């Protein structure tokens, strides 16, 4: 029996780790093709490669152009918004460069969202609050002019995130708050704004996280890996929910791995998350909601197609 179909809404395939490079040093050969093959075997039929700045946009478009399973986004991550002001042609030049990617003929087929954009107050050493606020708001112009949904980031921002999204909500069609780690109150605020909720391993670390994840309405849920980060680990509260997987599912969604220093062709790299682990997130969420993984996968697939691939054949 084939695995359920998955769409990984957030995978950082432009990260050098997928080319065998860690902290600027090569640890093993480029194994991106193997990563994509493992994803395919695990039922991942579409992946959205997230872009976080201009360089990412260029790299991602080049990466996805010839692969029917890969798509991407255009935008600037909150921790990188200082790049607007450091850009040689100034903030407006940076904005126009982002807009130029959207006007590329390739983008019409391959860019499915504006983002990753939003606010991140956990890492203000990368970019101060006022700069983040200013250029988060600016990116709603991209969503409005393109008609694309938004791929949103929110970390520890109090009411600022929901205040800004509410202010601009009429300017974009759909949006997903990816890698959601908020409280029940924050979940309600996002749902009241008619946003979708993206869940990955980082969303499922603690018992409190699991209580929130269990309250995400199924018709507002999307799944992701956010690889190479956000894997589900034995120390996480979610790990116990993986015990119901069959041996076949474990082989697909939890393949054997080795440390990067002992890299072996065909195996995962320990600690580097990949799209093939989508089934782990699915099994945790299905268990929390008390339904079968197959039923949940079908609902999530429908949600994701509606937002990012409207009109596409299933």
UniProtKB/TrEMBL annotation:
Family note: Belongs to the metallo-dependent hydrolases superfamily. TatD-type hydrolase family.
Binding locations of a divalent metal cation 2: 153, 178
SUPFAM superfamilies: Metallo-dependent hydrolases (SSF51556)
Stated name of the protein: TatD DNase
GO molecular function, one term: metal ion binding
Keyword list, A-Z: Hydrolase, Metal-binding, Nuclease
Gene Ontology terms: cellular component: cytosol
The keyword Nuclease is assigned to this record: yes
Binding-site residues, a divalent metal cation 1: 116, 226
Superkingdom: Eukaryota
Biological source species: Lunasporangiospora selenospora
UniProt-listed Pfam families: TatD_DNase
């Amino acid at each position: 029996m084939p695995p359920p179909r998955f769409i990984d809404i957030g995978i950082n395939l432009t990260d050098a780790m997928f080319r065998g490079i860690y902290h600027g040093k090569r640890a093993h050969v480029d194994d991106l093709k193997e990563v994509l093959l493992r994803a395919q075997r695990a039922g991942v039929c579409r992946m959205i490669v997230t872009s976080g700045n201009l360089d990412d946009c260029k790299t991602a478009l080049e990466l996805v152009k010839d692969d029917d399973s890969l798509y991407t986004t255009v935008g600037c991550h909150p921790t990188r918004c200082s790049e607007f002001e450091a850009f040689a042609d100034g903030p407006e030049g940076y904005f126009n460069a982002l807009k130029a990617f959207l006007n590329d003929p390739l983008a019409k087929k391959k860019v499915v969202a504006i983002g990753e954009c939003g606010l991140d107050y956990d890492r203000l050493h990368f970019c101060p609050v006022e700069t983040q606020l200013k250029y988060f708001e600016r990116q709603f112009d991209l969503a409005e002019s393109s008609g694309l949904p938004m791929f949103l980031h929110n970390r520890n921002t109090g009411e600022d995130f929901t205040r800004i999204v509410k202010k601009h909500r009429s300017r974009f069609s759909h949006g997903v708050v990816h890698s959601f780690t908020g409280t029940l109150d924050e979940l309600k605020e996002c749902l009241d704004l008619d946003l979708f909720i993206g869940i990955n391993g980082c969303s499922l670390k603690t018992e409190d996280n699991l209580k929130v994840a269990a309250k995400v309405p199924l018709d507002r849920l999307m799944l992701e890996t956010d690889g190479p980060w956000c894997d589900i680990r034995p120390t996480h509260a979610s790990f116990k929910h993986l015990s119901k997987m069959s041996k076949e599912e474990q082989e697909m969604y939890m393949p054997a791995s080795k440390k990067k220093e002992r890299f072996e062709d065909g195996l995962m790299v320990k600690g580097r998350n990949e799209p093939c682990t989508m089934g782990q997130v699915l099994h945790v969420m299905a268990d929390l909601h008390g339904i079968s993984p197959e039923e949940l996968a079908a609902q999530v697939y429908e949600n994701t197609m509606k937002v990012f691939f409207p009109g596409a054949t299933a």
